[in-house]
Amino acid sequence: MQSIVMISRGSSRWFGCSQRHSRYYIKRWFSVGTVKLFEYKVDFSERSSINLSGGKYARLSDGCAVATLGDTSVMATIVSKSTKSSSNFLPLTVDYRQKAAAAGRIPTNYLRRELSVSEHEILTSRLIDRSLRPLFPSTYCFDTQVMCNLLAVDGVNHPDILSINAASTALALSDIPWNGPVGAVRIGLCDKNFVTNPTRRELANSELNLVVVSAAQNLVVMLEGSANNILQQDFLKAIKFGVKECQYIVNGIQKLQTEFGKPKREFEIKNVDDTNGNLETVIESLSEIKLREIFTNANHDKTSRDVAVKNVKTEAIENLKSNFENLNFEMCSVIFDKISKRVFRNLIFENDLRCDGRQLDELRKISCEVDLYKPLHGSALFQRGQTQVFCTVALDSLDSALKLDPMSILTSGINEKNFFLHYEFPPYATNDIGRMSPFMRREVGHGALAERGLRSVVPENFPFTIRLTAEVLESNGSSSMASICGGSLALMDAGVPITQPAAGVAIGLIANYDSDDSKHIKDYRILTDILGIEDYMGDMDFKLAGTKKGITALQADIKIPGLPLKIIMEAIQAATSAKHKIINIMNSTLQSTRKPKKENWPLTEILNVPIHKKGKLVGPGGINLKRIMLETGAQISTDTENDAFTIFAPNQEALNEAKEIIDKLISEKSEPQLEFGAIYKAKIVEIREIGVMVTLYPTMQPALIHNSQLDQRKINHPSALGLEEGHEIQIKYFGRDPVSGIMRLSRKVLQGPASSPARSIGGKNTL
């Protein structure tokens, strides 16, 4: 049942349209001219709904839309150049930016403005890119940029899901060719129930953090998530649930596209055939047999195979020079790559064998080593085929935990991390030359994936900060999953009590369609533990990590416009079987966490210091703590929970040296024991406005006698009593304040009619 309301507003009209028993409604508003404003609402549950709107902002862009959840809003804009790029692929750039102003904050850097891109922004940009890229036409090679700006954030709802949905809406409504739309949701598992788009607090208590991106007809476009080692069947249910929820968003965007979408632009398709139409046939006749020999020769490794293919390509182009005038070498290269890919894929279907001679579900040869260098807290070398990763573990004090910037804290809900993984991919790993940068998008993304794969097995209450580094020394595919395997071994070698060993594996896919334009897959092969060439020539890079019990992380990069759930389920099953085999191989090297501690293992110890001696230990401006750190390497920090100090030392020797210095600082050997209620002679060492500073013995730190305790009469300054520096006065000792540890001294109590005999210090009577 529908109801339509029309309200006249001068030269504009507003239409409200709702559908009962439906999960959406549309508001349309037509203004003067061609500008149209719209709003679309999708309800996932009684408390969760996403609003998609547009037509108001950035009207000069090719497409713009705003997605809102709660009080969090993200605006996505799309611009694509009409001039053709020189690339043979889609030059798509995705940038996500979170502005401090969106949270009513000012940046904390010196210039008080947004500067370099944060790690969270890079990861979100990659998430959006992988959700949109597969649905662009393969022949569309025009410069395209997607920008997602955080307009407002409420600290409750996450903006990354909104960014994907806003970008999908903007692309669908624009004139840019795109085979979307897609919908995105986050699935949490709270109290054994699936939650769509959980809040920040709900996600903190969730066993699952899974992002599902799906197109129409329940086709999966992208998956990414982490889990607290949940069972495989629960993970499969979560994916199915997420795909179903995505369809409500997809249906809504399709309706908006029908109502408000622009006609898609015509674009020039790069012609890979020559004018005579036989260049591809000639290149195929010159190279196909040789390519088949190369791709069926299991003796080739990565380098020799690449060299052999390159030689065939060079030879074919040289032969063409004599037969074709004005030969277009770029076109020949594109045609050869197309033929090479087709031959490679056809051989897998024909023989059910891969280019290195393995069966479809067979792992590469794996070898592991641990405890490689004595000074390291933990180390491991993981070799899988020609992929080699060297992992190291460094244990440091809790003060070394990774602190996040305020905006990342607000959007992710994480204040600091005492476990983090840094992934490095130097150019020599692939026999290349290039610059080294610690903040390349690929390195950040792979490091975050490996970190998610191990985070759930690392204990939360570990007394040290753990930095795990994974340096790729050789790469022929699946280096991020090798980092998880090597990282698990390095953690166990360092004595970190992980709950279970974890491993990761990459699953590939080769698919055939009914026709070039069809989305229906007629045949496919799932490949376990893929090589670099199988990733490049294939249709999917499906990475899964976990223990023997369950799954800890997943990331699916799908290169075709969506996969049916059946193939996704088979890929997860293949990955689960493979990771069990990998863990068995790892266990033959190191089965569990190393129990005897290494000699260089760091140590922590709780140090209880009397309140009145804390000042002696810290020193003016913390100078004593700094001196201890410089001399011994031990760090002393305040333990507010236990009202004590915590000593962190890199080894036992450093701890012993630090404790010796601490004992000297707070030693009481030269200090006499004072008796509660006794009378002592005190020497005035300083006159202050509020009282006098006195000492009772030479090595004592000066203590204050307040004006109110100097005389029975009320005085405003000690000079009223004729007191000067160097004078000696009699005082009574009442112990130390239980909170501050300050001595409680009084002179006025001795001016009463009753007085006690004075005690002596050092054998001298003080009366």
Automatic annotation (TrEMBL):
One of its GO terms (biological process) is mitochondrial mRNA catabolic process. One of its GO terms (molecular function) is polyribonucleotide nucleotidyltransferase activity. It is an enzyme of class 2 (transferase). Its EC number is 2.7.7.8. Residues 677-748 form the S1 motif domain. GO terms for cellular component: cytosol; mitochondrion. The keyword RNA-binding applies. It holds the Pfam family RNase_PH_C. InterPro entries: ExoRNase_PH_dom1, ExoRNase_PH_dom2, ExoRNase_PH_dom2_sf, KH_dom, KH_dom_type_1, KH_dom_type_1_sf, NA-bd_OB-fold, PNPase. Keywords: Cytoplasm, Nucleotidyltransferase, RNA-binding, Transferase. Belongs to the polyribonucleotide nucleotidyltransferase family. This is polyribonucleotide nucleotidyltransferase. It comes from Cinara cedri. The lineage of its organism: Eukaryota, Metazoa, Ecdysozoa, Arthropoda, Hexapoda.
